[in-house]
From TrEMBL:
Belongs to the gluconokinase GntK/GntV family. GO terms for biological process: carbohydrate metabolic process. This is Gluconokinase. It comes from the Eukaryota. InterPro entries: P-loop_NTPase (IPR027417), Therm_gnt_kin (IPR006001). It comes from Ciconia maguari. Pathway: Carbohydrate acid metabolism; D-gluconate degradation. It is an enzyme of class 2 (transferase). Its EC number is 2.7.1.12. GO terms for molecular function: ATP binding; gluconokinase activity.
Length: 158
């Protein structure tokens, strides 16, 4: 795509990284400041006319609202309030697959602060995207080229 790529894990606080490394799942209080910072980063990219890809485990609907609308999404179930910045246009790509496939991939990952033992807590927290969210679901059981092509097709079809 030629877009900037960001891995949200790079933006976790040292405290969040330490907590995960110790096998302690993050909670909303840990994640909200991180998500707000990611929203601000995406807002800066949009303001400069840049498209970007953000790899992020936005597990809950509320987390995705924060990515779209920033901190105002926390106080309100309405992503936009009069007089506030217009919500970012984000396509969420929900990579869906069985826990055993994802666990296998995590086992192969080296040098990351999140241990595979936290995967179950992520599945327990997961609220898959649903209407009216702007999303597609792509199976992780497809090949990487098939996954990339499906995402690219969706982006360019509008």
């Amino acid at each position: 795509l030629g877009w900037k790529f960001y891995d949200a894990d790079d933006y976790h606080s040292p405290e969040n990284k330490k907590k995960m490394a110790e096998g302690i799942p993050l909670d909303d209080e840990d994640r909200i400041p991180w998500l707000c910072a990611l929203h601000d980063m995406l807002r800066r990219e949009e303001s400069s006319g840049q498209d970007a890809v953000l790899a992020c485990s936005a597990l809950k609907k509320m987390y995705r609202r924060v990515l779209v609308s920033g901190a105002s999404a926390i106080e309100s179930n309405h992503p936009e309030q009069p007089g506030e910045n217009v919500a970012l246009k984000i396509l969420f790509v929900h990579l869906d697959g069985p826990i055993d496939i994802i666990a296998g991939r995590l086992e192969k990952r080296r040098g990351h602060f999140m241990p595979p033992e936290l995967l179950k807590s992520q599945f327990d927290t997961l609220e898959p995207p649903s209407a009216p969210e702007n999303f597609i679901t792509v199976s992780l059981e497809k090949s990487l080229p098939e996954i990339a092509l499906e995402i690219e097709r969706t982006i360019f079809q509008g």
